[in-house]
């Protein structure tokens, strides 16, 4: 019975420096022999158990049943890449082909670009990567949830936002503070893992001051806080002044304490605490910010108006209603009210004592409703009802 191949010869992919192995499975080998050939160069690697090539990194082996024959390539190099053939020396010859792919995972050799740019300027970011196959290189913004995409502005003023920019070079024009942050150079050649390197781009710009609450009320004897938020790079110097006769910077100490909180590299929150507030503290306060981008003497200002909270009143007004009942007169003439409402206003002090009541004037009724008058009214209504029923049935 002639020998035959049981399985296909599988392709092998390894990184440079790793070992690679091809395994050829046959049946009924008997006296036949297995040969290994590098197909693209037609160089014989081994026949049976004997290595033919002078490449010391090549070896062969087989199992005890002589069904599985293996070609071993140690410390694989890029030159080892190519097709390899497993042959059986039958007539005609039988063979199977497998491909060895020796790769170099991506590596970023260098990344270049300015770390700081003045707002309105331009920047060129470059990334150099290597690998086998040659890696694809592209750029992305770091933390794309907060800063979605790269803003690409042309010299003509056109603006386009992209999630990624392909190529090893990224050019940014007419840079604004929105462009500040981290940029990632990513290289991939289809063989994981992809690799990335980060470049931080900071944008210098003048401070911008915003005031969350421009009208603040202070309570005498309590602590009041004035707050302003500053957006700038580099970080701004913040000071507080009061618009009075002196118009001098408020120095931290005593009843005035200034605190600056660094929210991010670009955002600062400044709080001026005034302890034991008095009426003399009321007035206009300026939050001033400046950095190296400001001209001499120039600042960005935010204004807060502070005044005194009114003291609560010592009296409260309560309204007590009462009702006046009067007769309903059935005699000819203008009708008189049956039920009228009259509020009674009284002033009660917090101490619990009650001042004399101030009663709103109301016309005095002629007489109050009594049981006799009520009986007369009910009797008259009963007579009218019976008369109406009698008239109705007589017409039917």
State the separation between the terminal residues, measured CA to CA. Answer: 127 Å
Number of helices: 1
Task: State the secondary-structure class.
Answer: mainly beta
Biggest β-sheet strands, sense, barrel: 8 strands, mixed
Query: What's the count of strands?
Result: 29
The proportion of residues forming helix, as a percent range, comes to under 10%
Radius of gyration from the alpha-carbon trace, in angstroms = 49 Å
Low-confidence stretches: 316-374
Order of helices and strands: EEEEEEEEEEEEEEEEEEEEEEEEEEEEEH
Q: What is the average of the pLDDT values?
A: 83
Shape: elongated
Strand content: over 45%
Structural summary, described in words:
The protein has 396 residues and is mostly beta strands. Helices cover 6% and strands 49% of the residues. The strands form six sheets. Strands 2, 4, 5, 6, 9, 10, 12 and 17 form an eight-stranded mixed beta sheet that branches. The chain is elongated, with a radius of gyration of 49 Å. The chain starts with a strand and ends with a helix. Residues 316-374 have low confidence and may be disordered.
């Amino acid at each position: 019975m002639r020998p035959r191949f049981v399985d296909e010869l599988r392709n092998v992919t390894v990184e440079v420096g790793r070992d690679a192995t091809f395994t050829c499975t046959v049946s009924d080998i008997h006296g036949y022999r297995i040969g290994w050939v590098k197909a693209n160069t037609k160089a014989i690697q081994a026949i049976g158990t004997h290595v033919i090539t002078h490449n010391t990194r090549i070896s062969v082996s087989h199992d005890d049943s002589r069904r599985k024959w293996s070609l071993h390539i140690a410390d694989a190099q890029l030159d080892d890449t190519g097709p390899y053939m497993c042959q059986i020396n039958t007539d005609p010859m039988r063979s199977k082909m497998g491909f060895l792919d020796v790769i170099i995972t991506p590596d970023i050799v260098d990344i270049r670009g300015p770390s700081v740019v003045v707002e309105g300027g331009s920047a060129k970011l470059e990334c150099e990567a290597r690998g086998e196959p040659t890696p694809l290189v592209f750029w992305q913004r770091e933390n794309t949830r907060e800063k979605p995409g790269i803003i690409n502005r042309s010299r003509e003023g056109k603006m386009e936002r992209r999630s990624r920019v392909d190529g090893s070079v990224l050019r940014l024009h007419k840079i604004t503070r929105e462009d500040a942050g981290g940029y990632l150079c990513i290289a991939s050649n289809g063989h994981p893992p992809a690799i990335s390197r980060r470049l931080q781009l900071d944008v210098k710009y003048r401070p911008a001051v915003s005031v969350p609450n421009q009208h603040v009320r202070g309570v005498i004897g309590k602590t009041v806080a004035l707050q302003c938020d500053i957006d700038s790079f580099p970080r701004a110097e913040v000071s507080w002044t009061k618009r009075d006769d002196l118009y001098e910077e408020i120095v931290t100490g005593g009843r005035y304490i200034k605190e600056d909180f660094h929210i991010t590299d670009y955002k600062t929150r400044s709080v001026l605490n005034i302890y034991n507030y008095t009426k003399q503290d009321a007035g206009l306060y300026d939050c001033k910010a400046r950095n190296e981008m400001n001209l001499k003497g120039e600042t960005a200002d935010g204004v807060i108006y502070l005044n005194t909270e009114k003291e609560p009143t010592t009296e409260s007004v309560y309204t007590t209603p009462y009702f006046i009942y009067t007769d309903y007169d059935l005699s000819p003439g203008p009708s008189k009210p049956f039920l009228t409402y009259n509020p009674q206003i009284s002033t009660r002090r917090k101490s619990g004592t009650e001042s004399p009541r101030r009663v709103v004037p109301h016309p005095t009724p002629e007489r109050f409703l009594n049981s006799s008058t009520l009986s007369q009214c009910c009797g008259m209504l009963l007579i009218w009802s019976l008369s109406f029923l009698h008239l109705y049935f007589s017409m039917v």
